[in-house]
Amino acid sequence: MEPTRPVHVPWVELTKEHDIKWEPSWQDKYTGPQGGAPAGPTQFIVDIVRSAKALADIFFAILPLAFFERVAQLTTKYYYDDWVVRGERRILMETK
User: Fold this and answer.
1) How many angstroms separate the CA atoms of 95 and 82, rounded?
2) With a threshold of 0.85, does the pTM exceed it?
3) What backbone phi and psi angles, to 5 degrees, belong to 95?
4) How many Cα atoms within 13 Å fall on the side-chain side of residue 93?
């Protein structure tokens, strides 16, 4: 079954007229043994790993907490605010 509802902002419906082209930067391209950036972790990751106190520090350096916050925001918007499901929002109490 194909969805009948158009996508909402910030997403864009992909069509033949509106197609997104993406290419990795030259540092991220691997074109064989003679091309691309040197193999191995970036200096950013090396610095994080050397200073990390826990695995969570490394994880959140690669995939920051802001990503999860944005996913939660857009999921809530899509679920409750864009008429996908009729229901009530439950807000969890923050503990300090």
Assistant:
1) 29
2) no
3) -105, 140
4) 2
Segments making up each domain of the chain, as ranges: 36-81
Q: Calculate the alpha carbon distances from 82 to 9, 20, 26, 53, 89 in Å.
A: 11, 25, 39, 41, 13
- Segment 35-91, tens digit of pLDDT: 666 677 888 999 999 999 999 999 999 999 999 999 988 887 777 766 555 556 666
How many whole angstroms separate alpha carbon 75 and alpha carbon 31?
A: 38
How much is the CA Rg of the chain, to the nearest whole Å? 20
Residue 24: which of 14, 12, 36 has the closest Cα? 36
Please state the length of the chain: 96
- C-beta of residue 29 within 8 angstroms of C-beta of residue 35: yes
CA distances from 55 to 41, 58, 59, 83, 95 (A): 16, 5, 6, 39, 24
